[in-house]
Specification:
The structure is a homodimer. The first copy, chain A, is of the alpha/beta class. Helix content of chain A is 27%, strand content 24%. Chain A is built from 12 helices and 24 strands. In chain A, the strands form 7 sheets. The first copy, chain A, has a 5-stranded parallel sheet with strand order 3-2-1-7-17. Chain A has a 5-stranded parallel sheet with strand order 9-15-10-11-12. In chain A, a hairpin with a 4-residue loop joins strand 23 and strand 24. In chain A, helix 1 packs parallel to helix 8. The longest helix of chain A is centred in the last third of the chain and has 15 residues. Chains A and B meet through helix 8, strand 20, strand 21 and helix 10 of A and helix 8, strand 20, strand 21 and helix 10 of B.
C-alpha cells in the first residue's frame, strides 16, 4: 500500500497527516508543484497589509518537518502532469513516475486571468500563493504604486483592497456582477459598499473587465492591478484520470471524499461538497473546509471510514475592522432554490450600551413552509464571528425559528446585551411565520 | 380582564410589556416594592467598579415611561403582602387591594444573610439592588476601606471581587463549598482561582461563614464585607396563594410559565424552569432567562399561547478580562445525573498566532451512551462568548459529537484559526466515543 497526495497546502497536508496518524507505516508521498508547502494562504492579505511581517510567519511546517517528524515524503517543485489510474501511477513533469494504491487529489484552485487581455503585464498580480504575495510586496516597495484596481469583490478582492488602502493606495474594486462576497444579497452588499466607501475604497459593480491597459482598467486610472476573480478548480488531472466532475465544475466526491474512481479521493479547493441547506452539491473553496475535507480524505485513503457531511456556507471577512459574516442562503438564493423565504433584519447592540456595545446588524432567513432557519448574516465590529456560528449551528441542526428564539445564549454585560441581537432577530422573524 | 404583575425589574416588566403588545386595552398594573424599576441588575458590579459612571445609566425606563408610552401602571414602593386568589386580589402593605384576573409573580430572589451573625453591621453589604450599589459606593467613597471579604464565589461574588480589586482593595473570597461559579468542575474552578490570584484576589474554598466580626471574617482581617451567597427565590407570596413550589425551592411552572393555580403565572429569579440536558426542573436565576420567561408569562397572561422550553445552563463571567463560560453539565454533574460522561479538554489559540491569537481553553463533555454533547466550558480573552453559544446551540439540538466535529464554523484570520478550538476539542472527544 502506498498513498500519493497531489497538492501540499491545506487539504493535501491535512490528508497526509491524518493518514499517517491512522497508519504509522503507510508510505506517503506529497507532491507540491510550488516552492513551499503548508502555508496559511488565508493570511496572504495580512502579509500584504504588513500586519504579518514575514512570509515565514505564514509557513506552518517545512518539508523537512514532515520528513523527519511525520515520516511523510513531501516534495516541492513536483508538478504532476498526468495520472494513469490503470497503472496506478502519477507522472511528474520531470518524467518520474510514482506508484500509488490510493491517491488524494488536492490540486486546489487557480485564478484564471486568461479571459483578460493584458493580464501578463508587470503591474498585474494575483494573490493566490506565497510567491504571489512576495512579488507583490516587492512591487509595492520598489515601485510605490499609488492607485490600485482590484478586479473581483469576493473575499480576497475585498481583503486585498483593505490591505492596499491601509498602505496608502487609492483603491477601486471592479466587480463583474452584483454579488459582493459571493452572496446574492443586496442589503449585505450595500453594507460592504458603505464600509468600503467610508474608508475611501470605491466599489463598482456590473463592471466586466476584458482588458487591462497599461495605465487604466475600464477607465479607472491605476498603476497596480490585482486580479481576484476568475477562480476555478484545478480539475484537469482528475478529468484525465477519469474522475467525474460535478455540475459545479469541481471534482465530485461522496461524503467519504472518494471520487467515482475507487481509490482516488479528493479534498480542498478542487472539490465540491454537499450544501446541507439546499441538499445539492456546491463549490465553496475555503481554507477551513479544505482542512476538514483533507482530514477525511486522508483517513479514508488510509483505510478509515470517516464522513464529511458538507457545509452550510459559512463565511466571514473583516473589512476595516468590521466583520461581514454570512451563512446559509440569502433571500434571493432561497428563492432561486424554489423556497419561500421570509426574513427579518434588525440593528441592535453587541453589548449593553453602558458596557460599550456597538451596532450589530443581523438578518435571519427562514423557509415559510417548514419554519426552519435557512440562512443569516451578521455585520459588526464586536462578536459577529460567534453570532454567525450560532446560526451555522442552527442550520446544521435544521433548527426551527420557534426553537431558536428561546435559545439559552450566554449573557453578561462584557459580552452581550440581555437580549442578544440573534434573539431579537429571531423574535422579529417568528412574527412572520 | 386585568393583569397584575408583582415585581418590576427584568421578568415583571418583560411580562407587562409583552402583554401590552398583545392586548392594547388590557389594564396592567406592575407592583414593585423597591424605589426604581427596569434597571440592569447585571450591571451593578460595573457601577461598583466605576466603569459605569452613574446609577442612572443602568435604568432602562422610568415608571413615567411605562405609564405614558405603554399605558402600564407601574408603581414603586408597592410591597405586596398577600395574595387572595379566591378573591382574585393582591393586598399591599398600605392596605390597598388590587383586583386581578391574571397574576404574574415575578418576585425575584434575595440574598439571605439571616444565617450569618453580624450581617447587620454597617460595613456589611449585599449587591442585589441599585440601592445596594449606591450605598456601597458611598461607603467606598467615605470610608476608604482597604481590605474586603466577599462571601460566596458565585457570579456576583467574583464580579464584585474583580470590581473592588480594580478599586485598589485587597480582596479575599470565601466560598462555603468547592464549586466556583456554581459549577461542580474542579479544573474550571482551578482556572478561575488562577486568574483571581494572578490579579491579587485570594479565593478560599470550604469556608463556611457563620459570623462576621467587626474587623475580620473567618480570621481574614477586613473593613468591608460583601455577602454574595445565600440566594433564595422569593416564594412566600406564591406559597400563601396556594402556588406549588418545586423541588428546587423555586416556584414550579409549566412551559407556558403558568403555575399549578390557573391564572397565576410566574417568571424570573423566583421561578424554576426545565433543564433541557437533564430533563428535570432547575433553578438558575439569570437576567437573560428572567427576560425570556417574563415575555412568555406576559404573552400567556394576555391570552396567548407561547412556550418557554427551558435552559441548558449557559453562563459567562468576565474576570479581569478573561471570560469563563460554561453550559450544560460538567463531568461531575453528569455523573451525579447517572450519565457516563467522557470529556476532552484542550488548549488552543483563539485566532492564528500570526494574527494575535491568544490562549483558549475548551472542554467538551459527552454522554458515552448516546454520543451526544452534554456540556462544555470555554475560557479565554477572545471569542469565548461566541464559542460557548455554539456549544449551547448544540445542546439545544441534542447534537452528537460526530456531527459537531464537522461544523461549518466561520474562518478568517481576524476571527479564528483554521481549526477552531471547538473543533479541536470535538476531534479529541470523538476519539473516546
Amino acid at each position: 500500500m502506498a498513498l500519493v497526495v497531489v497538492g501540499g497546502v491545506a487539504a493535501g497536508l491535512s490528508a497526509a497527516a491524518r493518514a499517517r496518524r491512522l497508519d504509522a507505516r503507510l508510505p506517503i508521498v506529497v507532491l507540491e508543484k510550488g516552492p513551499v508547502v503548508s502555508y496559511a494562504a488565508c493570511g496572504l492579505p495580512y502579509l500584504l497589509e504588513g500586519r504579518v511581517r514575514e512570509a515565514a510567519d505564514l509557513i506552518v511546517h517545512t518539508p523537512e518537518y514532515f520528513r523527519k517528524e511525520r515520516n511523510i515524503d513531501v516534495r516541492t517543485g513536483a508538478l504532476v502532469t498526468a495520472v494513469s489510474h490503470p497503472r496506478r501511477e502519477v507522472v511528474l513533469e520531470s518524467g518520474e513516475r510514482i506508484k500509488y494504491d490510493r491517491l488524494v487529489l488536492a490540486t486546489g484552485a487557480r485564478c484564471d486571468t486568461s479571459g483578460i487581455a493584458g493580464a501578463g503585464q508587470a503591474h498585474v498580480f494575483t494573490l493566490h500563493t506565497l510567491d504571489d504575495a512576495e512579488r507583490l510586496r516587492a512591487f509595492l516597495r520598489n515601485r510605490q504604486p499609488r492607485r490600485a484596481v482590484v478586479i473581483g469583490a469576493g473575499y480576497i478582492g475585498v481583503e486585498v483592497a483593505d490591505a492596499l488602502s491601509r498602505n496608502g493606495l487609492r483603491v477601486t474594486i471592479l466587480e463583474r456582477g452584483t454579488d459582493v462576497l459571493l452572496r446574492d444579497d443586496a442589503p449585505f452588499s450595500d453594507a460592504v459598499r458603505q464600509t468600503l466607501e467610508t474608508h475611501g475604497v470605491e466599489l463598482r459593480c456590473g463592471m466586466k473587465v476584458e482588458a487591462i491597459e497599461p495605465d487604466r482598467v475600464a477607465g479607472v486610472p491605476c498603476d497596480l492591478v490585482i486580479v481576484a476573480a476568475g477562480f476555478q478548480p484545478n480539475v484537469e488531472l482528475a478529468r484525465d484520470a477519469g474522475v467525474a466532475i460535478g455540475r459545479t465544475g469541481a471534482i465530485a466526491a461522496d461524503d467519504h471524499m472518494e471520487t467515482n474512481v475507487h481509490g482516488i479521493f479528493t479534498a480542498g479547493d478542487c472539490a465540491e461538497t454537499m450544501h446541507l441547506v439546499t441538499g445539492r452539491p456546491t463549490w465553496i473553496p475555503l481554507g477551513t473546509t479544505a482542512n476538514k475535507m483533507g482530514r477525511v480524505a486522508g483517513a479514508n485513503a488510509a483505510g478509515g471510514r470517516e464522513r464529511f457531511p458538507g457545509v452550510v456556507g459559512t463565511c466571514i471577512v473583516g473589512i476595516f475592522g468590521t466583520a461581514f459574516a454570512a451563512t446559509g442562503l440569502s433571500v434571493a438564493q432561497a428563492r432561486a432554490e424554489g423556497l419561500s423565504p421570509v426574513s427579518a433584519r434588525i440593528e441592535s447592540l453587541s453589548r449593553p450600551r453602558y458596557y460599550g456595545g456597538v451596532k450589530t446588524n443581523v438578518e435571519l432567513v427562514a423557509d415559510r413552509a417548514t419554519g426552519r432557519l435557512i440562512g443569516g448574516t451578521v455585520i459588526g465590529e464586536d462578536g459577529a464571528a460567534g453570532r454567525i456560528n450560532v446560526i451555522a449551528a442552527a442550520l446544521h441542526n435544521r433548527m426551527r425559528v420557534e426553537d431558536f428564539v428561546a435559545m439559552d445564549l450566554a449573557y453578561s454585560p462584557p459580552f452581550s446585551p440581555v437580549w442578544d441581537p440573534l434573539l431579537i432577530a429571531a423574535q422579529q422573524l417568528s412574527k412572520q411565520l
